[in-house]
Amino acid sequence: MRPLETLPPTETLEIENGLSLVPRVKLNLTIHPSLPSVSKPIDEWQLKRALIDFLKTSLSVSITVAEEDLQIRRLKDLKKRKRDEPVARGALFIRDLGFFNSRKKSEESTDKEEEDVKELEKKFVDWRRNVAEKMDGIELNLEGVKYNLSVEIPVSDDFERMKKDWEELYAFRNRDYSSGGRQGPDTIVLRGVPSRWFAEPRVSSKPSMLVTHTIFSTFGKIRSLNVAEDDDFGKETDEDDLDIVSGLHCKIVVQFEKYWDFYNALKVLCSRSLQKQGSRLSADYEVTWDKDGFFRNSRSQNQEKSRKMQETAAVRYRTETPRDEPRISRFTSNDSRRKRFKE
């Protein structure tokens, strides 16, 4: 596998177990009615057609988006909607980034591959931000009802924003540390990947620790790993979602031994979807860095559990022992009296 530092943001990365990380752009959508009193359900099909037409005709580079790559979730009960709440939320996925690849070939310098990758990364980020800004605030007229669209890049797709967040957090934490004891993030949290893709074939549909370890070892040496079913992923209590099948997704937490392995892995996982050889499904996962000390807290919980078990055992021992000792003492005393009486 090529060094991750030289991987352009528009290039697919093949990893273990027939899996590939495929570039894409994700934008979060929020739709508000222009008049807060609107109670008519939004027409999902017309909304999709309006957005697809806008992407084709209103940007400097025409963008083609399949209808299934526009996900719209309507509010369940409009009668209970507050005046400032949206009538729908959604996500837009742009998967056709071929125009970036053709541009890269014409501009790339073989002598300065990493510099060219950084230049392409900047162009990619600027173009994505421009698309979001062009779409943000547009007015949509659907069957005579006007709606306002809000668009933003999700945090889990914005590597530079996450990097800024952890640099600010650890700058505060490291004020009390010497240069030799500085702290930094090392753990990635991944949600929304199919459990069966991380399972042992023909053994189980549940995610396997061994298979998951093999896949993520692609990015560097692993210190700790946790994988579990994630039934809460994708659920929205106030939106018109389909039922989530139990065990469909899993949550993976990976702690790397080296900071730069963590850094490169998170950067590569950002703005990509997971695909499996032989499957047409694209897993549009969410990835972030661990702010809460998952493994540190797990160890603390285990230690606390062990401590409580020891305390409980000690209390039981102290409460049971005094009841035994007097009984032994009385038996000895009575026994000696019986012997003297007989004599």
Question: Helices and strands in order, then pairings?
Answer:
Layout lengths: L12 E2 L4 E5 L1 E9 L10 H14 L12 E5 L13 E7 L3 H10 L5 H23 L3 E4 L2 E8 L6 H15 L13 E8 L14 H8 L5 E8 L19 E8 L2 H11 L2 E5 L5 E2 L2 E4 L4 H49 L1
Antiparallel strand pairs: 1-2, 2-11, 3-5, 3-7, 4-5, 6-7, 8-10, 8-13, 9-10, 11-12
Estimate the helix proportion, in percent.
Answer: 25-40%
Poorly predicted residue ranges: 103-111, 323-343
Number of H- or I-type helical stretches: 7
Radius of gyration: 29 Å
How are the strands of the largest sheet arranged?
4-5-3-7-6
Main beta-sheet strand count, sense and barrel state: 5 strands, antiparallel
Number of E strands: 13
Mean pLDDT, to the nearest integer, reads 82
End-to-end span in angstroms? Answer: 96 Å
Shape: globular
Structural class: alpha+beta
Short structural description:
The chain is of the alpha+beta class. The protein has helices spanning 44-57, 98-107, 113-135, 159-173, 209-216, 259-269, 294-342; strands spanning 13-14, 19-23, 25-33, 70-74, 88-94, 139-142, 145-152, 187-194, 222-229, 249-256, 272-276, 282-283, 286-289. Helix content is 38%, strand content 22%.
Write a structural description:
Mean pLDDT is 82; it is low at 103-111 and 323-343. The radius of gyration is 29 Å and the shape is globular. The protein is built from seven helices and 13 strands. With 343 residues, the protein is α+β, with helices and mostly antiparallel strands. The strands form three sheets. A five-stranded antiparallel β-sheet has the order 4-5-3-7-6. 38% of the residues lie in helices and 22% in strands.
